[in-house]
Amino acid sequence: MNHEHTTLSYQVISYLLRYPNQQIVSTLGELKQVINSLDDEIKQELVQFMDSIESISFDNWINHYIEIFDFGRQTSLYITYLKLGEQRERGLELLKLKKYYEAHGFDITDEELPDYLPLILEFCANVPKETSSELLNMHIESLEFTRKKLSENNSPYVHLFNTLLITMKNNKFPPLYKTQ
């Protein structure tokens, strides 16, 4: 997988993991065209997610998102939360992440915590492959755990996590996990 495809995968996943809104709905058709250049396995996962979302009402999509990511303690998009919860050590991890971003020239605002997965993926789409691999590898256990829980809950979001893990693997990521 070339760097351009990796960047595109991270950007699309980041975009689709955000809270559902009408802008995302209106761009699903365009996104399907954009991802046509990606590897078949990745394209298939992304299209399955988008088809699933298009098959339900907007209100049901929002309710599912809230149930899975806002109330689902085991499927949080704040990836240090899975390991540390509200422990004091989480604050240290968040500070380390913020410093990691800054060390690589990425300024973040205080709008989101630095462990918010869409923010991490946005960062990964804008740095060299080695940097993105290093950061994602630090959180591989949380990512795989979330993917497993999404699968158990029959959530369409499992397709986005499958895409992420496939992209990481294709990026010559260390084989620390299985993608299925």
Total count of helical runs of at least 4 residues: 10
Helix content: 55-70%
Indicate the mean pLDDT: 90
* N-end to C-end Cα span: 19 Å
What coarse outline follows from CA principal-axis ratios? globular
Low-confidence blocks of residues: 175-180
Strand content: under 5%
Main sheet attributes: strand count, strand direction, barrel closure = none
What letter string, H or E per element, gives the SSE order? HHHHHHHHHH
Q: Strand pairing plus helix content: what structural class?
A: mainly alpha
Compute the CA-based radius of gyration. 16 Å
Tally of DSSP β-strands: 0
List key phrases describing it.
disordered C terminus; globular; 180 residues; 67% helix; mainly alpha
Topology readout:
Blueprint: H1 3-16, H2 22-34, H3 40-54, H4 58-70, H5 79-84, H6 88-103, H7 117-124, H8 129-138, H9 140-152, H10 158-170
Helix pairs in contact: 1-7, 1-10, 3-10, 7-8, 9-10
What does this structure look like?
67% of the residues lie in helices and 0% in strands. It has one domain. It contains ten helices and no strands. It has helices at 3-16, 22-34, 40-54, 58-70, 79-84, 88-103, 117-124, 129-138, 140-152, 158-170. The relative contact order is 0.16. The chain is globular and about 40 Å long. It is mostly helical and 180 residues long.
